[in-house]
Write a structure and sequence with these properties.
This protein has 3 domains: 51 residues; 57 residues, no CATH class; 128 residues, Mog1/PsbP, alpha/beta/alpha sandwich (Protein Transport Mog1p, Chain A), CATH 3.40.1000. Helix content is 25%, strand content 22%. The protein is built from 7 helices and 12 strands. Strands 5-6-7-11-10-9-8 form a 7-stranded antiparallel β-sheet, sandwiched between helices. Strand 8 and strand 9 form a beta hairpin. The N terminus is likely disordered.
Length: 318
């Protein structure tokens, strides 16, 4: 059984009580000879030393910070570069380059590069070149046949008179003679062929190297040169049975004075102002007009004018 001891044997004397106090009394300090003033001065000095050390450390760190910041910036220069380019694509190209350089005494570099490329595709639209304004094709020997037509009729590029009979190649072709055989005729030779239209009862002589196609009603026939251009033959209605001048003026009111009137074989012929369209009128078929048209197509020159004239001169009704 637990038995609590009584404190009858627990006796504290004055000597034991004094040993319990471990912190000295002020009187004891005075007795020990330690000056309170000296302690205060030591504390103040210690505080000053700590403050000085902290200040020196702060200054050193600040210098290091500014040195690193200066290394990242090039020489206290503020550089603002604005480059505006406006490009107008047309006949004129205007390039405006504005460079603004502002020198600011600070440690920051501001680089603003504004590049505005405004490509305005405002190309000048030129009016189309009229077919009649195109130049004739190249003619090396100046015999009236272009170099391309020399190939069509198997004639010489370097001689005006291929067969040497005293007549030029162009002259012989347009008059129905062979330019390669002194006594030969053009019709029936290998360089030309005859097309016959049974629907509208006409025939026409054309270069054999051309390829023709016709519409389902045969009102339009295209003779393709195979070099980007063609010659078209079409039949138009003339229900009012107008004469050449009246018909052309009615068809082209703004060009009623811009044509020429001539005669080919038994046809009254109107040539337009470019000379590339022939309108053939026959008293035998007054309700129809036969049109022969040179179409340059993708060519930038007129390379088959002799062939065009040849076909017009050899158009016949059957």
């Amino acid at each position: 059984m637990f038995k609590k001891e009584t404190d009858k044997n627990y006796k504290v004397d004055s000597k034991s009580w004094e040993e319990i106090h471990v912190m000295p009394h002020i009187d004891d300090i005075k007795k020990s000879g330690v000056s309170l003033k000296k302690i205060s001065v030591s504390v103040v000095v210690l505080i000053i030393v700590i403050t000085a050390v902290a200040g020196i450390f702060f200054l050193l760190e600040s210098k290091k910070f500014f040195r690193q910041n200066n290394n990242s910036n090039t020489g206290n220069i503020g550089l603002n570069t604005n480059t505006d380019k406006n490009i107008n694509v047309g006949t004129n190209v205007n390039t405006d380059s504005n460079a603004n350089l502002n020198a600011n005494a600070n440690t920051n570099i501001n680089t603003n590069a504004d590049l505005n490329n405004n490509a305005n595709s405002n190309k000048e639209i030129k009016p189309p070149v009229l077919a009649g304004q195109l130049p004739p094709g190249k003619d090396f020997d100046n015999d009236g046949l272009t170099d391309m037509e020399e190939e069509v009729y198997d004639t010489s590029y370097s001689r005006k008179d291929t067969d040497g009979d005293g007549y030029g190649d162009k002259e012989e072709i347009l008059n129905g003679y062979s330019p390669t055989l002194p006594d030969g005729t053009l019709n029936g030779s290998a360089v030309v062929a005859d097309y016959s239209n049974s629907e509208f009862n006409y025939g026409i002589l054309y270069p054999a190297k051309f390829i023709w196609t016709e519409t389902s009603q045969k009102r339009l026939v295209i003779f393709d040169t195979r070099m980007g251009s063609s010659i078209a033959v079409m039949v138009r209605n003339n229900s009012l049975k107008l004469g050449p001048s009246e018909y052309f003026s009615a068809l082209f009111p703004d060009k009623k004075d811009k044509f020429s009137l001539t005669k080919i074989n038994n046809f009254d012929v109107i040539k337009d102002e470019d000379g590339l369209v022939y309108y053939l009128f026959s008293s035998d078929v007054p309700d129809s007009v036969y049109v022969i048209e040179y179409r340059p197509g993708s060519r930038n020159s007129l390379d088959y004018l002799v062939s065009f004239e040849l076909m017009a001169k050899n158009f016949v009704l059957k």
